[in-house]
Amino acid sequence: EGSPENGLINPDNLLIVVNHIKCAAFELPFKRGEWFGHYEPTDALEYLTEAQLLHEVRGVWHWMSDTYPAEDISLRTAARENVVIIDHGDRARPRVVGEVDAFSAPMLVHTDAIYIHDGQQYHVDELDWESKKAYIRPVNVEHYTDASLSVRVEVIEQLSDGPADSERAHGEVLVGAIVTQYKKIRMHTHENLGWGKVFLPESQMHTSAYWLSLPRYLSERMHEATLNGALAGLANLIGNIAPVYLMCDPRDLGVYAQVKSPFTDSSTVFIYDKVPGGIGFAEKLYDAHDLLLRAALDHARSCGCQDGCPSCVGVRPTDEALPFAKQTTRQLLEVLLMRAGG
């Protein structure tokens, strides 16, 4: 009878809490000892005072900035830093066409990228990383760009109960991402027209993640190539299924497969919130672990492709010597469901 959608947000996300307190203080001064819901706001109020946004007088914090705090708060992301996208096609009248969060900017608006806004293609002439500005101009070309992203995930703290080698867990992680190169791909035919290098520093984000680890005996018995294919297929499949359960944009999640995680000491698939601090996706996936595995297996079985496709386990490996990931991924899921009692 209820809504099928999940409006998820983590009320304890420090970035979200501080932004809420800024807006609340603009409307009404905070008194010492007052609580903000279940959150004791003194530390946040003192931080905002040091930032010269609030002024304390006799235990009462007043808004003192001449800015309207809600103007600087996005309903789309909790990221503190954004890259401003500037159309300078008309040099006499440059205009801001949008913003993108700093973590995603290297993928979307790196130098020489093709950026699409309101159906119009733009060429990114320069991404000034220091000033967080991307300069673009309108173009009409027959290709798009696809950046290659190298990701690493480091577990900071496991928040769920159980040992580090549990087959499912969730917690806080540090995600590091760096774009190393990009490809120019012709529209419709997907022909590779060339490539280029990207010279940008690694972006880091502290967020939350859910992770799924294979039983150690299983990964140790599998041939390396078979394990790599199955793990990549499992990551692609769960990454496609997870947004359906969360009712979120697939771009709100990141997926990372690690053949041997230093934290779990086993092959592990991480699904992390692409929001600083996390907004509750990871814990929701942890709670839906068994349902997620069942849905992933059902999708792999029902998909009409023979050897893999982007909607299930990913495309078929180009090396004919490699085993097909679809069969091994299905076998992995069957074993995991048996162990989970499903």
Q: In total, how many domains does the architecture comprise?
A: 3
Rg is 23 Å
Strand content: 25-35%
Structural class, judged by helices and strands? alpha+beta
Percent helix, as a range, is: 25-40%
Query: What is the strand tally?
Result: 14
CATH architectural name of the largest domain:
2-Layer Sandwich
Alpha carbon gap, first and last residue: 26 Å
Count of helical segments?
A: 8
Say what the CATH topology of the largest domain is: Gyrase A, domain 2
What is the overall shape?
flat
Mean pLDDT: 85
**Stretches where pLDDT falls below 50 for ≥5 residues?**
none
**Order of helical and strand elements:** HEHEEEEHEEEEEEEHHEEHHH
The level-1 CATH class of the largest domain: Alpha Beta
Largest sheet: 6 strands, antiparallel
Structure description:
By secondary structure, the chain is of the alpha+beta class. It folds into 3 domains: 59 residues; 60 residues, no CATH class; 171 residues, Gyrase A, domain 2. Helices cover 27% and strands 31% of the residues. It contains 8 helices and 14 strands. Strands 9, 10, 11, 12, 13 and 14 form a 6-stranded antiparallel sheet that branches. Strands 5-4-8-7-6 form a 5-stranded mixed sheet. The two termini are 26 Å apart. The model has no long low-confidence stretch (mean pLDDT 85).
